[in-house]
Every structure is written in C-alpha cells, then in structure tokens.
Fold this protein.
Amino acid sequence: MRRMEPRWRGCCKNIPMDSKTKLKKAALSGGTMIGFVLVWQLICSFLRVDPWILPSPVRIAQAMWEDGPRLADQLGFTLRLALEGVALGVAFGVAAALLFHLIPGVRTALAPLVIVTQNVPLIALGPLLIVWFGFGLMPKLILLVLVCFFPVAWSMLAGLGQAEPHLREYMAMIGASRWEVLRRLELPASLPSFFTGLKLTAAYSVSAVIVAEWLGGSDGIGHYLVLKEKGFDTAGVFSAIVCIVALALVFYGAAVWLERLAIRWRPPRAEAKGGQEA
Amino acid sequence: MSGETENAKLELSGISMSYSRGGRRHPALDGVSLRVNEGEFVTLIGPSGSGKSTLFRLIGGVERPDAGSIRFDGRDATGRRGLISYMPQQPSLFPWLSVEANISSALESAGIGKKEAAEQASGWLRRIGLGDAAREYPHVLSGGMQQRVSFLRALLMPRGVMCLDEPFAALDALTRADMQAWLLGIWEAERRSVLFVTHSIEEALTLSDRIYVLSPAPARVLSELTVPFSRPRRADVWKEPEFVLLKERVLALLQKGAEERHAL
C-alpha cells in the first residue's frame, strides 16, 4: 500500500510537451509562407509582370502603408461586425443545439429547414435580405448569424449526445435529474465539440462578413475591396485580401486560445488513444 | 421473518424481471429476495451474466421490476431514484473536474452545502493519503487510486445504502488485494450498509457479513450464508482453515447452479 502512494506523481510525465517538435513545425510552416512570398516577389521582378495584373508583395506593402489610416478604419469596422456576427451566431448555435438535444421532436421537425439555410448561396440570399431589411446593419447580421450558427450548433449537438455511457449510467444510478445530467455531464462533455464548431465558425465568419459588406453599405474591408476592384487598383485589392486573411487567422487563433483556456483536462478519447500507443 | 425485517435498510422481495430482445423475452431475475441490514456488508456472488447489474439498476430505480417490491427503511421505494450511492467497475470520475471537485460536486448534488462538501472531500482525501492529488485531474491517478476516489465519493454521499458493482474487477491482482484491505479498514470504521457485487469468492469471504449466491440467468438466490469471521477482520483471513471450507462450499453451489442450467 505504501509503495503505491506516490504512483500518481510520475504519471504527469506521460503527457509529452515536446517543445522541440513544436518549434520545428512552426519553422516549417513559417518557412513555407516566406518562401511563397519570395517566389512571388521574384516572379514579379524578373518576369516584369504588369502591376495591375499581379502586384508584387513589396508593391502591396507600399499600397497598404500609403492607405494605412483608411485601411485601419475599415478593418476596425469589419472586425466589429465580425465579432457581433460571431457572438450572435454562437449564441444562436448553442441555443439551437440545446433545444434540439433536449426536445427530440424539434430536431426531426427543424433539421430540414436548418439544412436549407446552409444551402442557399450567400450571393443569392444577401440581395434578398437587403430587399427585405434595407441597407443597415440588420441584413448583414442576419447573413452572419445564418453562416455562424450552423457549425457550432451541429458539432455541439453531436457533443451533447456523446457523453461517456458509463458516466451516464453513473448519473442515472445516483438518481440525477435531467437538469443535473445536462449541467454536470453533457455540457462539459460537449465542450471539445463546441470548440471544434467555434473554430470552423471563426474561420468562416470573416469571409461571410466580407460578402455582407460587399453586398451593400459604405464601410468595411468588403466595401473597400469593391471600390478598389472597380478602380482597377489591383494592389488595393490585394491590400484588402491581406487584411481579410490576417483577420481570419486572428479569429481562428483566438478560438484556439479560448479552447486551451477552457479545456485543461484530457478528453477521454485522447486518453484512450494515448493508452493504446503506450 | 418479521423480526428480521425490522432493521432492514434495504429489502427486495420476489423481484422478477425480463428483457425483450429480438422479439423474445429473456428472463433475467426470477423471484430474487434479499435484504441488507443497517451497517451490514452484504455481497452478491454469481456467474457473469446472472443479472446482478440488472438487480442494481432496479435498486437504483433506473428500471422497474416486472414483479416484486423494493423497500428502503421499511417503506416501498420500487422505481424510486436517489436513495443509493454507487460505485461502478470503472471509476466514472468526471475528467473535467479535479479529484476533490469530483467528490464535492457529488455531495452538493445530494444536498450538502458547498462549504461542507469541500471540507469533507479535502479532509477525507488527506486522510487516505491523496491530499496532494486533490487539485489534480483524475487522469493523473493510477487506476487503483481513481477507484479509491470513486469509493470515497460513494461513501460520503448521504445515502442509506452503498451499491458497489464489481469495483475491483478491472484492477490487477496486487492492486486488488491492496484495495480490499484498504476498503476493509475504512468500512469497519464507518459501518455503512453496503451491497457489493463480485465474481471473486475470496473477495466476498474477506469483506462480507453475509453472502447471497446467485444462479445463472434467470437469477435466483441459491443460498444465503453468514460469514463467521469476527470484526475487525484481518485482510489475511484467507489463511484460516474455515475460509477454505467456505470457499469450497460457495464454489460447489456455483458449479451446481451452472450444471442445473445446462441440464435444462
């Protein structure tokens, strides 16, 4: 018995946090990006590509620097709209997942409708929403919610149903109420799935915001993109693209960071896998 | 009989239950009657698939029997939930809660105040030598240590009867022997009413006050025997000559039950 006491201490070492491998991965993906930009620059410089067909990275950087204040303004607007859209979308997504999970009939009844919302093309839906709701914030938010709620709702719904059967059995045996099963078991168990959905939403939301801005209104990177395109300012178009990509990366990174904050335990599936490998 | 039922914490009488699978009825329990007195350690032993887990689900109120009644403290509680605490074969600790929170949150949901639940959990964890692990997640603990936490969770829940469903079956032999000695020590100090399920005759004889031997499915009570060894009991009670005799008797009962079934 005494021999066993310290056994739990050593077990922490089983979780490898190999920072060398991490560094190698970062260097590899970062190197690829730098290489890509370099090749691009070289092609533009040596093949003398017309800047209005394909501007070089240096030229794009110049354009961004010159139009910096305006770009920052537009980026701020887009960022706000994206945050509002994601927040609303996630709220709707979680609400839908809970509703579908707790009342099985609702799921059967509404699932086709939900699938329909995901299959109507944004470029068709956008103008319609503007016809119905005008050029204000409303049609944009509706469009964003429609895009953002789905990944969260669907992955969280799967997560809520996937709580470990033996934990469910334990809860049943000690006489836990439906509410307790939801609060103590299903909600925490669905967190990993929720974050899978959130990461998808974070990645999709930015391009959805761009479509929303592109459709109407007079602000945001999407609007900026339309202006530059109509003016044949290709460097300006690429400036907008750089901002969009950067914003999407930041959103995704934020979702990953939130996930790490929220999930510090080791999910049971990873545990099982680790056991098999060991 | 009436004299015996007076101090019965849990009493099952004439419990029958069958499942329908593939359009056919499969009888699982056939008129099982048993009782756990206040502060008594009672073990059910039987071959695998003899409906012991079904019996537990009925006691837990998760399912209702086809026939028979379940009484807690003399009152009918057939199909009622929330009267037992439970320790299954797998530790079933919540991976997102710390070791301490696993215990304290169970106590809270059983109606104990937040502060008292936390104090009880941390106090007991220190008492069993897991004080340093209280704030860790369960997965850092070995299987045996996780089962100790799971046992503590069942012990501290303010419920009349503890149901332990083959709690040591997944452990290696050495850890299992350790756990038996450990459980014996704690139980003899606390004297809770326990219903314990096991495959192991030695385990049953080492821990219990009384043993019910069950037949293969559909389960009946083949025999009820009182374990004569005194309390406090030593973990090496298996060295007693009488232990071997009792073991042979239980084994013979189980074998006879299996033969009768084949004969059918």
Chain B touches chain A through 40 residues (CB under 8 Å). The mean pLDDT of chain B is 89.
